[in-house]
Structures are given as C-alpha cells and as structure tokens.
Design goal:
Growth Hormone, Chain: A, mainly alpha, 461 residues, 79% helix, 0% strand
C-alpha cells in the first residue's frame, strides 16, 4: 500500500491538469471555429484536419505508453516526458492558430501538419501524466480523491482554454491588432500557460517518480514496433478495458461535439458578444467545480462505476430536456449551460480513476506492470473521438448550409447547431451508458483483486 497523499502532493499532481484542460478545451472549442471563420477553410475540410490528428494519435499512443512504461532514467519514468513535451505543446498551440497566407490547397496541409505536431506533444505528456496518477496511490477511494482535485484544476484550465481566448482576442483587436494576429497571440498565451503547469507537476512529482535507473540498461527501451503493438493488443483483450474504451469513445464524441459547437451556438443562435460568451464560460466552470465537489462527496466511500452510470443517466435526460427548452432568454441559457455540462464534466472526474483500477486487474491476470500502455488507450480514444466529433459536426454544418462569412445563419443551419448541442450528443451518452453498465470492476471486486495480489506477493516472498 502506498503512503497516504498529502494535500501538497495532491495539488502538485493536479497542476498539470490545468495545462491538460487549457490546451485540450482551447483546441476543441475554437479550432474548428478558427479554421472556418478566420483561416478560411470549408467546414467539412476543417473537420477532416481534426481526423488527421486523431489517426496520427492512434499511431503514437501505444509508442508513448510503451516507452514511458519501460524507461529508466534518474528523473523517473514519467517526468522526462512531461518536461520535454511542454515546449512543442506551447509552440504548436501558437502555430495552429496562426493564419497563413498561402494557396487554398496548401492551407489544409499546413493545419494538418500542425495538428499532428500538437497531438504528438499532447499525447507525449498526457499518457505519462495519467500513468503517474496510478503510481501515486493504489487506494480505491484515494484515487477518486486525487482525480477530484485534478478535475477541479481541469476547470481552471477550462477557464483558460474557453473563457480567456475570446476576451484576449477581442482586447487585442481593440488595441489595433488584426483578427488573425490576435488569435495567433492567444494561441501562444494558452500554450505557454499550459507548459508552465506541466513543469510544476514534473517538479512536484519527484518523490512519486524517483530515480529508476537499472544497471546495464540504457534510459530508453529498444523500439520494436511489432512488440509494442503486440503488447497493446494484449492490453485491449482485457475485458474491463474494452468496456471502458467504448464508454469513453461515445462519451468523448459527445463532449467534443458540444465543446466545438458552443461558439457556433452562442454566436449565431444566441447572438452573444465575445464578452457575453466569456462570462458564460466562467459561469459554466464555476458550476462545474461545484458539481465536482458534490460528486466527490457522493463517491467518497461509494462505487465509482455506479456514480458515473448515474451521472450519465442524468446527462441523457437533461440533454433531451435541453432540446425541449427552446433556449431564448438568459435564465434559460444559464440552466441550459449546466445541463449540457453534466455528463462531460463528471466523466473526467471518474473515468481515469476507473482506468487506474484496471492496472491491478492486469497485474493479477498477467503479472505485468503496464500502467502507461493501459492509460494510453484512454488518451488514444480521447484524440480519436476528438477527430470524429469535430468531423461529424463539420459535416452537419456543411450540409446544413453554414456560411462562415455570414453574420446571420439560415434557420436550417441554426436548427442543426441546436441539435448538435442536444439530441445528437444525447444519443452518444446513451451508447456510453450501455458500455459502462457492462464494466465489471466494482469497489468490492477491486478489493478482492488487491487481496489476491497481496496473497500472491506474500507467497513469492
């Protein structure tokens, strides 16, 4: 059993969650909007760019997971990745939101390349960071508590990634800068802020990710793609992880669609200003933090799986209600924003803690320690679903007749913007709920796994 975590340890680990959420939500919320309204790319083509990043992520995820599992450096297994990837993460956030003056046929290639660089950097830190959480503690309830602190810091990052960009971009324009340059500098700000939060966690985790050098072996493992992907397939055969992967895929498609659609909904359906949008994002984050604190108390001594199932059930119902509300006034909007935040918000609070528990299941079944490989699957699904969600939204907007150069959209376009905030995401939450109900590791089953591992280790001794 690992030593109990101090408050300083929990906050140190949670710091990187700020950068995680800031860059992730910045990309999910504004990239499609930026590409279609500033960079001048058609919605369907912009959606395809996000899919390119998703497929690239599918390739590098197992590699990052394997390398971080088998690395042996004086700085630990996970921290070197968090440190090194902070620099390209900041740079790619800047370059991805830089409008380039090139031939129309070249633009998609540029943004496709920048998307690949961004996801390489993001996955390069996120997989080791997530795996680090599994090594911080092996206690069932403490893992939930650790993820709750990370989720609260996620909300701070969400403010940086969702609220600050509209305020900063508007302020820079008022200062005399062009729209394109304003967004470019905004990307740089988000990237640098995210990188700093990663470095804080890397410094704070020294005791939890200590020197692990092995005599006669280099710091990095030999890269054998056949072996890496073979091990990856072995992990995917674990029954619990398969159900979590499907649950995550559908939940994150829902999350991506709604996040990417918020700017369209607020701007065209609600007719809100940049300041109004930013204040709404602030309100959303505050309500999400209150929600995290409530769920933390509910799940403190309960079953994480049952808590997430209940949250998804509530999310499904509230998304349908959101469609029926026909949002027109500010009070209705405030209620609606909370409604559409329920399922995605609680997902990130609980899902990583469930994935951590699969690590002990894997150890009992195979005798291996593959935290990086296991959590990399969650990162893979995150990026893949981000591509699918954005592509789906881009296709819907294209066929609905969305015009990025028009100040007012057609009724058909606004109808499908609304549907992409409510009914379509609700369908994906239902699919996620079905998969989650089949996930077999309850709190009682996890206790049995730990007891069996302790007995086996005792026998070995």
């Amino acid at each position: 059993m690992s030593e109990r975590l101090t408050m300083k340890g929990k906050l140190g680990y949670a710091s990187a969650a700020v950068g995680d959420a800031a860059c992730y939500m910045f990309i999910n919320t504004f990239l499609l909007f930026f590409l279609t309204t500033v960079a001048g790319i058609e919605p369907a083509a912009a959606g395809t760019i996000t899919v390119i990043g998703a497929f690239w992520n599918a390739l590098i995820n197992p590699i990052i997971g394997y390398i971080s599992d088998h690395s042996a450096t004086k700085w630990g297994r996970r921290r070197p990745f968090i440190i090194l990837m902070s620099i390209p993460l900041a740079a790619s956030a800047f370059l991805l939101f830089t409008a380039v003056d090139v031939l129309p046929m070249i633009k998609p290639l540029y943004y496709g390349a920048m998307t690949m660089i961004f996801w390489t950097a993001y996955t390069g830190f996120f997989v080791p960071y997530l795996a680090l959480g599994a090594e911080y503690t092996t206690d069932y309830n403490e893992r939930m508590e650790l993820r709750s602190y990370a989720s609260m810091f996620n909300m701070v990052g969400t403010l940086i990634g969702m609220m600050i960009p509209t305020i900063l971009a508007e302020a820079l324009q008022h200062a005399g800068l062009s729209l394109a340059l304003s967004w470019s500098l905004t990307g740089a700000f988000v990237g640098i802020f995210s990188a700093i939060s990663l470095l804080i966690t890397a410094h704070a985790a020294k005791d939890r990710d200590p020197d692990c050098r092995i005599d006669g072996r280099g710091p990095l493992p030999h890269i054998n793609l056949k072996h890496i992907f073979g091990e990856y397939l072995q992990v995917m055969k674990l029954k619990p992880i398969r159900y979590l992967l499907f649950a995550s895929l559908f939940a994150l498609i829902c999350n991506t669609m709604m996040s990417s659609n918020l700017m369209y909904f607020f701007t065209y359906n609600m007719g809100m200003s940049a300041t109004g949008i930013s204040l709404t994002f602030l309100y959303r984050s505050v309500m999400c933090i209150l929600m995290i604190m409530l769920v933390k108390k509910i799940a403190a001594n309960g079953d994480k799986r049952k808590t997430l199932i209940a949250a998804f059930a509530v999310g499904t119902v509230t998304l349908v209600i959101g469609k029926m509300m026909d949002v027109n006034t500010l009070p209705e909007l405030l209620i609606f924003v909370v409604i559409v935040s329920v399922a995605p918000n609680i997902y990130w609070q609980i899902m990583p803690a469930l994935v951590y528990d699969v690590c002990e299941y894997d150890e009992l079944e195979t005798g291996k320690h593959r935290q990086g490989a296991i959590v990399s699957l969650l990162s893979l699904v995150e990026a893949f679903s981000a591509g699918l969600g954005s592509q789906l939204l881009g296709i819907i907007l294209q066929f609905a007749g969305f015009d990025g150069e028009a100040a007012v959209q057609s009724e058909t376009a606004m109808l499908w913007v609304e549907n992409s905030m409510t009914l379509i995401p609700a369908l994906f939450v239902v699919l996620s709920l079905i998969a989650l109900k089949k996930y077999p590791i309850t709190k009682e089953r996890f206790a049995e796994i730990q007891a069996e591992l302790a007995r086996l280790k005792g026998d070995i001794k």
